[in-house]
Design brief:
GO molecular function: 5-amino-6-(5-phosphoribosylamino)uracil reductase activity
Structural class: alpha/beta
Distance between the termini: 55 Å
Helix content: 25-40%
Radius of gyration: 19 Å
Shape: globular
Strand content: 15-25%
Protein name: Dihydrofolate reductase family protein
Number of strands: 8
Order of helices and strands: EHEHHHEEHEHEEEH
Number of helices: 7
Largest sheet: 8 strands, mixed
Strand order of the largest sheet: 4-3-2-5-1-6-8-7
């Protein structure tokens, strides 16, 4: 089965909206390596329409420009790009197509196909739905040491909690924390169990 990973830039207060307004001061080689390992390694990209429009409006030009980011831009261009949208779209970026059918059913089938990793960048509404369906194998959160204090947050209000398992974690020199989560199970126990671990006085 193919692995599905999702990567997001996120502020310490949970904001994921408009990262271009606050995350660039924290972008260094460590973050570049992390992004390349998650998104650049994918041979298929699953993107929401807004994220796709942003990518398609920037990366082809960067590839053509031949600058420092042209190599990464070419990898994104060569990847198969599946766009989650209910609208008819006209594509100018190569290897792009619209997701057909129900999101959960289509992604479940996509993971059963032969091929390499499937990567998601941004696309918050898509990530939420796939997390709830337990279809994301690795959620890469690049937690920035800033409280943006306005904008959409990754986890919106819902009746059910969403348990996760921390798979690995690293701290960058900028203070960014790269935390990778997988699906988890609800915890058990209450205060009676927890109080056993409180510090005991003499």
């Amino acid at each position: 089965m193919r692995t599905l990973t999702a990567g997001l830039f996120i502020a310490v207060d949970g904001v994921v909206e408009n990262p271009q307004d606050w995350h660039f001061p924290y972008y260094n080689d460590e973050m570049g390596t992390a992004v390349d390992a998650q998104l650049g390694a994918a041979d298929t990209l699953l993107l929401g329409r807004k994220t796709y429009d942003s990518f398609a409006g920037a990366w082809p030009e960067r590839e053509a420009g031949g600058g420092e980011d042209a190599y990464f831009a070419a990898k994104l261009g060569d990847a198969r790009k599946i766009v989650v949208s209910h609208q008819d779209l006209t594509f100018t970026w190569r290897n792009s197509e619209v997701l057909k059918g129900d999101l959960i059913e289509a992604v479940t089938a996509l993971k059963q196909e032969s091929g390499g990793p499937i990567g998601i960048s941004g696309s918050v509404s898509v990530v939420r739905q796939l997390l709830a369906a337990r279809l994301i194998d690795e959620l890469h959160l690049l937690v920035h040491p800033i409280a943006v204090r306005t904008g959409e947050r990754l986890f919106d209000a819902a009746e059910a909690s969403l348990p996760l398992t921390l798979l690995r974690c690293a701290t960058f020199t900028t203070g960014v924390i790269h935390a990778v989560y997988g699906p988890g199970e609800p915890g058990t126990g209450g205060y009676d169990e927890a109080k056993k671990h409180l510090a005991q006085g003499d």
